[in-house]
Design a protein that fits this description.
- The complex is a heterodimer of chains A (398) and B (439).
- Chain A is built from 14 helices and twelve strands.
- By secondary structure, chain A is of the alpha/beta class.
- The longest helix of chain A is centred in the middle third of the chain and has 18 residues, at 215-232.
- Chain A starts with 23 loop residues before the first strand and ends in an 18-residue tail after the last helix.
- Mean pLDDT of chain B is 75; it is low at 1-30, 363-427 and 430-439.
- In chain B, helix 5 (152-164) crosses helix 6 and helix 6 (168-181) packs across helix 7 (198-209).
- In chain B, 28% of the residues lie in helices and 17% in strands.
- Chains A and B meet through helix 9, helix 10 and helix 12 of A and helix 7, helix 8, helix 9, helix 11 and helix 16 of B.
Chain lengths: 398, 439
């Protein structure tokens, strides 16, 4: 194994591949975003509340300068909402966002907000929708400078060209005059990155920046992001649903489920020795381009049901209804994030006891033991209403 | 839950046959030949045989050869994955089987033989007999494919009623059974699509595809928009259905890892042509075509230690004016002069893999590989061990030079790769110390 990433042991908040004394760029303390559910007129008049959607339900994070933290989760996990709060597109309902030691909620007035938005930039998922088809690439990249009244026309152009070249669109002058439809998908995403770079940010929140792209283009962009970190010391909050991309790119991975962080730590530990059953199940079902040997199957734990609605968060550990290892305590008491060493923390009552022994749940190949598990899980939960029938463990015509 | 037996009892469903040997135990069902075949069917013919298929899209400024001479075969109970990047023609190939192409798309040549019946010359009315009843499709966006103002149960019952002429009650009963089969509680038959989650909607789509007991189900990126866990559930469902119902599956996806886990064979397409086709166990472990190799090493693999990803430089060709020789040549690190001039013929190997690449000798040009200098030793494959019978028409001698076991991640390949792109094949992270330098 030629894995070069030895974790650096650091006390306090973990910072494995980033120097332990690197300044903390972003810190989230008990961040909470609850969206009220709006009822009809009658509810408004009577003041009856319909409850809240707990999109983000108390998370703590910190990112050091030059670090890449991947926030991984399925839809409805609150990962995107977290990213939107960091760039101030969504307001938190509780907790604190600190950037460079400044509480972001105290920022006031156009000037401070502009300064903040210069330092923290967002890259969206879809390069087709982000770019205005009627604006040239040059106009798009210069726009943030114009809006913020930075520089003269000539300076703006120079900065835009520099950003385009840094994003790999060379020669910039050639690309600046083109329109989005003249570019390929990968080039468009580079333009979006250039639009973020032109402000010379410190922190980039990247929300699924490569999900729409073909594999061959994806790699180039991931590589570009790493290059930019190396050259400019950029810090990334990388939001993705794809654990294998997080594995390739990130220094640390935080796994979210239903508004909470289930597990956080150095990529190596989270992926190789997950201590939360949800993480472990996710890793087991992440497809791999290496087919299993003939007659064998990858040992997968396919959870039953889907992520519940964030308006009805289960009691205790919010994962317990789908967890194959859940026991009584999980139903009533929510586990804190236990520190399991080297900055690796997991929210599970079993985390401290050592590696988990998760059953293989894969109906196609289910044998006696795992069949029982599947049935048990199948009965205990259904996220979307109505119990799911456990799959029949028919022996495949092998 | 409803077993297969319930679904194929004579009273139970439209798949029921009066003479076709109704009750079969699930393990005995391999293929779907016990159902009544279309009248013209040749019982000894392969299930699906596509030969030299060519599809063109006419545009205002010319025409695009979206699919250009694609041949493949699908056997009873088999799962074939079609892989490739956007625009490689994988979806077009699948849609042209039942001619669901956009208005400007035309099949320009070749044949699509189902049970030996060529579907290409059929008119719309004649084709209706085969759509849904023999070949059905699960589309990508279940959200958009279901009618939002109709109940799920009704939507599934419709093809049963319309295509198989069943009564409304029987169709609805069957729809509920199908929902049960795909893991949606029967009571949810009255739900509207928006009341179901994404995974449930995709299950409903699958139930609809199964409504008329087709022989072949085509999944067009059936799991692309879904979460990883739901994707695993849906793939597991498809696999289970395939075994229980004896379906043949065609899975179209850009995600090679999905194919690795669910299919028997894989066909890699590039720019409207087949680059490589063969058993999953062969193609994924010993890819021969440089494109397959690149594509595989561009995939992140969470179960491997490496964090290196490969880059395929450049972009796919504009199919209005495809390059004269091999279409991958402009992006290929092994490209030789001949690649830029001559379209590579497909060569079949004894292990069941078919490759269209000049690096592999054809009967006529066997010495080519020997002569190609540094590129020669890159080849690939351990055909000797599990060798089946040699394909007809290809002399045994041809295999010999090709049979050399080399891993995709073999160092010599890395070296080849770095020769043209200094970054390719490197660790993405460029060593341990670097990130710290930045801070």
């Amino acid at each position: 194994m030629s894995e070069p990433r030895e974790p650096v042991h650091a006390p306090g908040p973990p910072a494995p591949t980033v120097a332990a004394d690197a300044p903390e760029i972003l810190r989230l303390d008990n961040l909470e975003v609850h969206f009220p559910i709006r009822g009809g007129l009658l509810d408004t008049v009577t003041g009856r509340s319909k409850g809240v959607v707990r999109a983000v339900d108390g998370i703590d994070l910190s990112i050091r300068k030059g670090e890449i933290l991947a926030l991984v989760g399925e839809s409805g996990s609150g990962k995107t909402t977290t990213g939107r709060v960091v760039v101030k597109l969504t307001k938190q309902t509780g907790g604190k966002v600190t950037v460079h030691g400044t509480d972001v909620s105290t920022l006031w007035g156009t000037r401070q907000l502009r300064e903040y938005r210069r330092r923290v930039q967002l890259i969206f998922q879809d390069p087709y929708e982000t770019l205005n088809p009627k604006h040239t690439i040059g106009e798009f990249v210069m726009e943030p400078l114009v809006v913020n009244g930075i520089g003269s026309k000539k300076e703006r152009q120079e900065r835009a060209y520099a950003a385009l070249e840094a994003s790999g669109l060379r020669p910039a002058a050639d690309f600046a005059g083109r329109y989005p439809h003249e570019l390929s998908g990968g080039q468009r995403q580079r333009v979006v990155i250039a639009g973020a770079l032109v402000m010379d940010p410190e922190l980039v929140v990247a929300d699924e920046p490569v999900s729409m792209l073909d594999v061959s283009i994806r790699t180039e962009l991931l590589r570009l992001m790493l290059e930019l970190r190396r050259e400019r010391g950029l810090t990334y909050l990388f939001i993705t649903h794809d654990l294998s991309i997080a594995w390739v790119l990130a220094d640390r991975i935080a796994v979210m489920y239903l508004g909470k962080i289930m597990e956080i730590g150095p990529a190596e530990q989270v992926i190789r020795t997950p201590r939360n059953p949800y993480t472990q199940a996710l890793v087991s079902v992440s497809p791999s381009p290496d087919p299993p040997a003939e007659g064998e199957r990858a040992s997968r734990t396919i959870l039953v049901g889907e992520t519940p609605d964030a308006a009805h968060v289960p009691s205790g550990c919010r994962f317990h209804p789908r967890c194959p290892l859940a026991f009584d305590r999980c139903k009533v008491e929510e586990p804190p994030l236990f520190d399991v060493g080297e900055g690796h923390r997991a929210a599970c009552w079993l985390a401290e006891a050592g590696p988990l022994d998760l059953p293989v749940i894969d109906a196609v190949q289910a044998t006696g033991g795992s069949e029982a598990a599947a049935v048990e899980v199948g009965v205990s939960i259904d996220a979307t209403g109505g119990a799911l029938p456990a799959a029949t463990p028919d022996d495949p015509a092998a | 839950m409803t077993g297969v037996q319930d679904l194929i009892t004579p009273e139970g469903g439209p798949g029921a046959s009066t003479d076709g040997g109704g009750l079969v135990t699930p393990s005995a069902i391999r293929g779907r030949r016990q159902w009544p075949l279309p009248k013209l069917a040749d019982p000894s013919a392969p299930l699906l045989e596509v030969e030299d298929l060519a599809v063109r899209f006419s545009l205002r400024n010319g025409s695009v050869k979206a699919v250009d001479g694609v041949s493949f075969r699908l056997d009873d109970g088999e799962a074939l994955g079609i892989a490739g990047e956007s625009g490689c023609g994988k979806t077009t190939t699948a849609l042209s089987l039942v001619r669901l192409l956009p208005a400007n798309g035309r099949i320009k040549g070749g044949s699509v033989k189902l049970f030996g019946i060529d579907l290409v010359p059929k008119n719309e009315k004649q084709l209706a007999r085969y759509r849904w009843r023999e070949i059905s499709i699960v589309f990508q966006g279940a959200m958009n494919a279901l009618n939002p103002v109709r109940r799920v149960g009704d939507q599934i019952a419709e093809p049963i009623e319309v295509r198989l002429g069943q009564s409304r009650e029987a169709s609805y009963k069957r729809a509920r059974e199908l929902l049960d089969l795909v893991g949606i509680p029967k009571q949810r038959a009255g739900a509207y699509p928006h009341e179901l989650s994404g995974g449930m909607r995709q299950r409903a789509m699958i139930a609809m595809a199964l409504a008329c007991d087709p022989a072949i189900v085509i999944g067009d990126e059936p799991t692309t928009a879904l979460d990883v866990m739901v994707q695993a559930q849906i793939l597991q469902l498809l696999e289970r259905l395939r075994h229980e119902l004896g379906l043949s599956l065609m899975l179209i996806t850009h995600d090679l890892s999905v194919i690795a886990e669910t299919c028997d064979r894989v066909m890699v397409m590039y720019a409207g042509k087949v680059a490589e086709e063969g058993p999953v166990s062969r193609v994924f472990t010993a890819p021969r075509h440089p494109y397959t190799r690149k594509l595989l090493s561009a995939f992140p693999n969470i179960h491997a230690d490496r964090r290196t990803l490969d880059v395929i430089p450049g972009a796919p060709p504009d199919l209005r004016t495809p390059p004269p020789g091999c279409r991958f040549a402009p992006r290929c690190s092994f490209a030789m002069d001949v690649c830029r001039e001559v379209v590579p013929p497909e060569v079949r190997f004894s292990d069941g893999v078919r490759v269209a690449c000049h690096l592999f000798p054809t009967p006529d040009t066997a010495p080519l590989v020997e002569a190609s200098g540094p590129s020669a030793p890159l080849v690939v494959g351990r055909a000797a061990d599990g060798a089946h019978e040699a394909a007809p028409g290809i002399p045994d001698a041809v295999e010999a030079p090709a049979v050399r076991a080399v891993d995709v991640r073999d160092e010599s390949l890395e070296a080849e790769a770095t020769a043209y792109d200094p970054l390719a094949g490197d660790d993405l992270h460029d060593g341990p110390a670097t990130p710290g330098d930045a801070g």
